[in-house]
């Protein structure tokens, strides 16, 4: 099988695992191919990869439907907690911050529970709810449809929403990081939302665990060198050593820092 076809099918699996389900049309737009090509891919994937068709969508099969967001939030708990603690320690009371979607970012929001008088601008409903427990905080969210089961807002309306605010900090994750250090997402609207936050913040903070290095996604965003601070649980594989060394002053490895 051609490597391009293999990579496209791997990406389809990753998108469905990440989101729980996605339409054929959205996949075709994401991957830059026809809906007929996607349907041919699905003929193969639905036979062997734990996926199923449902009314013009592709979803995880019943035996694998275990709320994908909760699956992600429940992986690498120690690493995500270390990342969250380091990130939260850098945010003072009274700060204004953007918070993006994602399970690692949600861990940071939960770690901010002792902060007071924050102004939080976010499309992550779970993060908004976690931070709303402190009544001195101000929480600002966009309107529109909530994506389930992730409990977040996505789309071009979110890009416009972030364009109307400025913040001291932008805290965000990413779906993957390529060999050159490019940040990858599953859709261009997610790239644009992250970029809007980054540009409108004084200090940008990327929170990731090492599994994101080498993880594929079709939409390319900014480069690691564009980020002010990158907080990761542990150093990635040796393939990325040269990349990390060139950006060493921007990186904080949370599990190492917590042991010092």
From TrEMBL:
GO terms for molecular function: DNA binding; DNA-binding transcription factor activity. Keywords: DNA-binding, Repressor, Transcription, Transcription regulation. Residues 5-60 form the HTH deoR-type domain. PROSITE patterns: HTH_DEOR_1, HTH_DEOR_2. InterPro entries: Carb_Metab_HTH_regulators (IPR050313), DeoR-like_C (IPR014036), DeoR_HTH (IPR001034), NagB/RpiA_transferase-like (IPR037171), Tscrpt_reg_HTH_DeoR_CS (IPR018356), WH-like_DNA-bd_sf (IPR036388), WH_DNA-bd_sf (IPR036390). It holds the Pfam family HTH_DeoR. The keyword Cytoplasm does not apply. The keyword Repressor applies. It comes from the Bacteria. PANTHER family: GLYCEROL-3-PHOSPHATE REGULON REPRESSOR (PTHR30363:SF4), HTH-TYPE TRANSCRIPTIONAL REGULATOR SRLR-RELATED (PTHR30363). This is DeoR/GlpR transcriptional regulator. The lineage of its organism: Bacteria, Pseudomonadati, Pseudomonadota, Alphaproteobacteria, Rhodobacterales.
């Amino acid at each position: 099988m051609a490597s391009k076809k293999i990579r496209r099918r791997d990406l389809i699996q990753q998108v469905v695992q990440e989101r729980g389900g996605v339409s054929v049309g959205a996949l075709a737009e994401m991957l830059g191919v026809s809906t007929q090509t996607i349907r041919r891919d699905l003929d193969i994937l639905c036979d062997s990869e734990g996926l199923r068709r449902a009314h013009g969508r592709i979803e995880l099969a019943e035996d694998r439907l275990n709320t994908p967001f909760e699956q992600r939030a429940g992986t690498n708990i120690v690493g995500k907690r270390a990342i969250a603690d380091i990130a939260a320690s850098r945010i003072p009371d009274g700060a204004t911050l953007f918070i993006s979607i994602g399970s690692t970012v949600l861990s940071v929001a939960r770690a901010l529970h002792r902060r007071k008088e924050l102004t939080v601008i976010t499309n992550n409903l779970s993060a908004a709810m976690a931070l709303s427990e402190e009544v001195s905080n101000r929480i600002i969210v966009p309107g529109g449809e909530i994506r389930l089961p992730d409990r977040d807002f996505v789309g071009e309306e979110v890009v416009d929403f972030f364009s109307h605010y400025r913040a001291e900090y932008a805290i965000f994750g990413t779906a993957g990081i390529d060999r050159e250090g490019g940040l990858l997402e599953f859709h261009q609207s997610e790239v644009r939302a992250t970029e809007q936050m980054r540009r409108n913040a004084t200090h940008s903070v990327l929170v990731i665990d090492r599994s994101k290095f080498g993880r594929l996604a079709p939409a390319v965003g900014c480069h690691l060198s564009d980020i002010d601070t990158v907080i990761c649980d542990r150093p990635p594989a040796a393939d990325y050593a040269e990349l990390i060394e060139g950006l060493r002053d921007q990186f904080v490895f949370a599990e190492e820092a917590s042991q010092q």
